[in-house]
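Write out the bound-state structure for heme C.
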Amino acid sequence: MLKQAPRTKVTPERASTAGRKSAAITMRAGTFAVAGAVLSAFSAGVAHAVDAKALWEKHCIQCHGADGKGLTKMGKKLNIRDLTDPKIQAEATDEKIRANIRDGVKDATGKIRMKPAENVTDAEITALINHVRKLSSK
Ligand code: HEC
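---
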């Protein structure tokens, strides 16, 4: 049973594609329903959907860059360390990052190095910390 017969006819895989497609459509309809629910909860102010990537892009990317390596114009000017570096990841505890996002980072002379993020909730800061953690694996 080493040789396989050449597959010339419609294989079972191909035959099942149609079935899979309709399943995908059903799933998509479900996603719309969920998205609608999230949206209405959002506008009602009940739940706050947190999009870590969007937050990162709004508050952090200008200095730290999309990949967290800090190779932006601002990053280079401020001599920002590479957030993907495991050593820095280990040094920066969640509490420290939280405090730095909330209160900013100053140098020894009291000059602001990283400004506090404005209008972020605790939940958003948590999402940003998680985002920072994800940078390390890239
Ligand atoms: C104005 C530029 C700037 C912006 C904007 C900025 N940072 Fe920073 N960040 C810095 C500088 C400067 C340091 C300190 C030097 C270093 O650690 O390389 C720093 C340090 C850090 C560190 C290192 C570990 C620590 O906490 O000490 C983390 C993590 C961090 N920032 C996360 C963020 C997050 C998340 C945001 C968005 C909410 C952000 N930064 C926005 C400039 C910035």
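---
The chain has two domains: 13-44, 52-135.
The mean pLDDT is 81.
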